[in-house]
Amino acid sequence: MIEVKSLAKTYGKKQNVFTALDDVSFTIPDGASVAIVGKSGSGKSTLMHAMSGLDRPQTGEVIIDGEDILQLKAKEVDRFRATKMSFIFQSFFVQANETCYDNVSLPLEIAGVPKKERRAKVQKALEAVELADKIKSKARNLSGGQKQRLAIARAIVNEPTILFADEPTGNLDSSTGEIIEDLLFDYNKKNGTTLIVVTHDPDLAKKCDMQLFIKDGKIALATEHHEKRPTVKKIPVGGRRVQA
Amino acid sequence: MKRRDIIRRAGRSLRQAKARTLLTSLAIAVGAFTLTLSIAAGEGSRQYADKLVGSNVNPRALFIVKDNALFDGGPGQSGLREYDPDVATNQGGVALKQLTQADIDKLTARDDIEDVQPIYQLTIDYLTIEGSDKKFVSEVARYDSSIRNESAAGDLPPLGTDLDTQDVVMPESFAEALVKAGVATSVQDVLGKKVTLTVAKPASQPTDEQLQQALASGSAAALQRLTRGETKEVTFTVSAITKQSSTALMAGTAMQLSSEQAKSIADYTTQGTSQYQKYTSATALAKEGKEPEAVKQALSDAGYPAQTAKDLQNLLFTIVNILQGIVAGFGVLALFASVFGIINTQYISVLERTQQIGLMKALGMRSRDVAKLFRYEAAWIGFLGGAIGAGLAWAIGTLLNPWVTEQLSLGEGNAILVFQPLPIAALILALVVIAVVAGFFPARKAAKLDPIEALRTE
Hints:
The complex is a heterodimer of chains A (244) and B (458). By secondary structure, chain A is of the alpha/beta class.
């Protein structure tokens, strides 16, 4: 379970102060898929960074499995990210000069997984994204969709409990994007990994169990929406009720 | 992250920027090349000097003086001082305490040294060679039986044995000069020829009585004879001609004769002067089983400063060290320049790989490990540069060695560049350390990079 409690983050000083996050609170149950939806500059990326411990908000708590990661030391936050979280980015960030194997093996190396165990894990992750035959290819030789699949393999290789995806389909055409979405949601359902998608695409957001609409650093709307159960249900957010 | 994985990733990053890596390491390679050559030249020179001293000087040999100024290179005592009959005043007012016959006797009586031989100041008027009336001058010295001489013709006595009293040995260059002068037909021809040395006794102060007698005789010749001093002729046979050996330290520019003859000539030429039986220095051998260094100390304590064969070696080594230091200085300068090359390259590398660094940090890589990654990259560059430079120096040095040996006429089997794995390994290690130090700031920049900034797209 991820509990976010009255998170606030401002940039700049005095007259130039900019509020990126303003008293944000919500709770995400384990294994849920959540969309953080908002326009550019709405604070959705800042929220993701705060939740993953990359950014340090001025106030608030991010409690993951009972531990406030904002109180942890840098070393422990790094450990947390290395073992429990992973990321998928809009621009993939795969290392073009490296082979698929080396790309996927990076999180394992960072987490200190012994070399013997890495091979099987990398193989399994690449199989999951149907890139097993490209294991020795350089990442630069892959198409955009393949690169993002490689990024997914890299994200799931260490079996994280939370998977952050920042505009995962933003750089892809719609059909390729769908393949990526399917991969992510399949993984989310099969493995019970919490999936947090940051997007401005309402169609992608709809596919998630839960949507958090961010505007000007505040949660404007929180909905729980299941495809199977297409009723929109109001859920409590940050201590106040938000109308759906 | 495991160290091995960091090192592997560092190596891979460098392979991906081959040209840049190679060029940066070439800068270090220049320094490594120079330093390797300087190390090799130093080692080669030391080995050569060792060989020189070893084949020229008996390791037990001691060089004894009375005045320490000779060793210190100091000017001795100068200024106004009390007259001491044992002090010789050289030109320029430099005074040196000298060994007297009593000192020599005292030294001979010691039980830790043997074969005490004063260095005689031998001066001759001229010498003549059998079969010619041409007159020649040359230096004359006592034959040193403690050094190995090579014979070009004739037989030399075995090491440690003195020449026969009627024999004389001359260097090959003398024989060649005689051939040129038409005195002999060949170097071989000089062998066995008689050499006559003419030595002069200094004029003694004639007594009043002698002067009166000479005046009374009324002849100018009688008066001249009185003041000119007498001369004497000593004849020897050339028993051997010494070869100019490539490892011979003394260039052998003297006519050499036995100790006994040397003493008699020295005594004759100084008789009646203040220099009679006075010597600036003497040689001796530490007795078998005695440590020359300990004997040297004992002699110094007894008022006879001495130097051992090792001191002579050290003197040569000092010269070698200075020369080596100069060459090494250039190498260090080149390295200094290459340090900035590494810093520059690594800074660019950090900028280029901002996203990669951001990603690694987002994936939970610790800042320390990011810094390590870049430091190891620098270390690889240092290693590569060191290996290239040292390898090139080794290869080129080995190829050039025979030519250098020939050019400097060092003699067969001597090499001026001696490459040893251990100092070169140490050099490469030092370069790795220097490269890591150079990579410190870029590595810190990488470690401090904010992953959010780094991952901000477009």
